[in-house]
Amino acid sequence: MAISSFHPPVRTLMGPGPSDVHPRILSALGRPTLGHLDPLFVGMMDETKELLKYAFQTRNELTLPISAPGSAGMEACFVNLVEPGDKVLVCVNGVFGNRMIENVTRCGATAVRVDFPWGSAVEPAAVEAALKEHGDVKVLAFVHAETSTGALSDAQALCGLAKKYKALSIVDAVTSMGGVPLLVDEWQADAVYSGSQKCLSCTPGLSPVTFSDAAVAAIKARQHPVQSWFLDMNLILGYWGEGGKRAYHHTAPVNALYGLHESLVMLQEEGLENAWQRHASMHNALAAGLDVLGIQFVVEEGQRLPQLNSVYIPDGVDDATTRQFLLAKYDLEIGAGLGDLAGKVWRIGLMGYSARMENITLLLKALAAAMTEQGYQCSGEQAVTAAEAALK
Amino acid sequence: MAISSFHPPVRTLMGPGPSDVHPRILSALGRPTLGHLDPLFVGMMDETKELLKYAFQTRNELTLPISAPGSAGMEACFVNLVEPGDKVLVCVNGVFGNRMIENVTRCGATAVRVDFPWGSAVEPAAVEAALKEHGDVKVLAFVHAETSTGALSDAQALCGLAKKYKALSIVDAVTSMGGVPLLVDEWQADAVYSGSQKCLSCTPGLSPVTFSDAAVAAIKARQHPVQSWFLDMNLILGYWGEGGKRAYHHTAPVNALYGLHESLVMLQEEGLENAWQRHASMHNALAAGLDVLGIQFVVEEGQRLPQLNSVYIPDGVDDATTRQFLLAKYDLEIGAGLGDLAGKVWRIGLMGYSARMENITLLLKALAAAMTEQGYQCSGEQAVTAAEAALK
């Protein structure tokens, strides 16, 4: 069979994630592997926790990266906070709300779903009505930034509702962290998970999580053991605990954590507010350019995620043909639609290191070329000019 | 707070894992990140499956790496094969047998434990007696290579017993794959998991698994949904399925998989039999050197793992002092004992790229120096001479 080493081309990643990985982070991945109990590595773990507290804007002691992708971070939140028989209110406005329901039912709990149109934000008034109707909701779960549609929900209002009705909140911040404000302590969010491969511009595979004191108290007061050994926060805490002795749990993904550490150092260097501002500015530039191309957004203004732009595919333009053209001719990746939006929309990511003017320029030119090939009238040059003007 | 980039020193890793990572693998980790649905990446996933089939010596279609460390691979096997109310016979001769019991009970199943002294292999006669006593065992679970003690059990005999008593087998091959013969199809093992950071010499964070047709049939015949969404093989299969369309499940850890692919290419280049032979030869050399130093093995000859050598700490020599000396003066890591063996033994790994004569030479000299510092009489030079002689 004789399979050879794999040498990938250099792509520009403007889909829903992974985003472009900064060269400093790629370089960190290949540094010499340390033992996972080496005092120097343990020191790096402590630094990573501090940096994550900054990224989450929290003082929560239980703040660390789960050694697996974001969907494992989601599961970590659910299996630790939810017990058999519990009632969980889940807001569904895209793919990831549905996945939350899967998690709830697999915990032996009851999911009460509140649906919203895909492409819209979660509406707090509807959530409050549902919380009132069901007096005994233990957990309110929602997606802050829906990666499947590009809608941003009001996490502050929703976490406030959870507190008002004495429920815990679980917040999916996979795509929001580093791209838009995420203020865990100020909003009093209880369990929040994110992903390494979105606005942190790190490689995929790690899921930062944070748990409030109330969440930790709920975990400690559980009547049933956590159904997952790998994701049991009681055990993970012993491994990631502050300084000193580490209780062996699993073997940490050492080199992947080098990458996450470097990405968080870069976020600290740029400053969170500056990173949010950069994502907002680049979104404005992209939107101005897409407007010139006659491309419309799925999500209405005011609810749009700057870092994940869902747009309708124009009439007469084919989804797969276009994406294949971009990949083949420009080494450029954009995302397809998911679920009901498959074939109808593209998802254009401006996350982390991908949120740069040179990426936007490439995208607008390449997209115009792809559509022109299919007989659609547009000018990439004019789109770029509009994008540049919007930046000023 | 201002935390800087992390620059680890170059250590020699001769503990229980991670082992030394080959420079080719470190280099692969930093290659440009592709989208996880990019056709080129999907092609690499298919190659990785083929290479894993070779490493497992299986034709099982359901052979792939779980996107998380070995303990998640263990959990994947248990949550997919075990249902509430099932009876699982678990052989316990070290830390990882105990962890299997944790997995069984968290699945709502009953664990029947058969204990063996730590440092000994699992005794098939005792297992057969237990299988006879409990007529309705659904799964027999055991550890092929106990990383906590260095004992190698007869996986062929144990898988044969499972078949004889109409049970499925779950085999922990975390430390065995690539270091000693592991013949999944010939032995008719049903669910086997391994780790990337042992004899494959890759970085930690991935867990290769393989499931037989009988195991797949059991998964498909389940009465209850798999309690983990992230580890549900029905869903993972859709993502890693053969060629063509991939159903989105989670975002694969792209760069970590570059590393695993490269490590498997290297295993293919060396040849499995040659890799096994190299581990055996290096073990013989190490054993000859340790003998000169007056250091005794925990496990009796014939049951010893070549790649993981548990040895008693000599009288008058302190565990922590010695390991700190090795790390500080030689940048050399060896492993501590776990559980009842803590403070009494060292675990010396000769896994993958660590199984080289230059590592053995360094270890023998460094260990002799550390013990001499503590007043123990020995000669590192003589130990090295004996090790070299044993190689011829």
UniProtKB/TrEMBL annotation, chains A, B:
Names of the cofactor(s): pyridoxal 5'-phosphate
Residues that, per the record, bind substrate: 347
Pfam families referenced in this protein's UniProt entry, alphabetically: Aminotran_5
GO annotation, biological process: glycine biosynthetic process, by transamination of glyoxylate
Enzyme kind, highest EC tier: transferase
EC number: 2.6.1.112
UniProt domain Aminotransferase class V: residue ranges: 40-337
Keywords: Aminotransferase, Pyridoxal phosphate, Transferase
Positions of modified residues (N6-(pyridoxal phosphate)lysine): 198
Annotated Gene3D superfamilies: Aspartate Aminotransferase, domain 1 (3.90.1150.10), Type I PLP-dependent aspartate aminotransferase-like (Major domain) (3.40.640.10)
Family, similarity comment: Belongs to the class-V pyridoxal-phosphate-dependent aminotransferase family.
Name listed for the protein in its UniProt record: (S)-ureidoglycine--glyoxylate transaminase
Natural source organism: Zhongshania aliphaticivorans
Phylogenetic placement of the source organism: Bacteria, Pseudomonadati, Pseudomonadota, Gammaproteobacteria, Cellvibrionales
Gene behind this protein: pucG
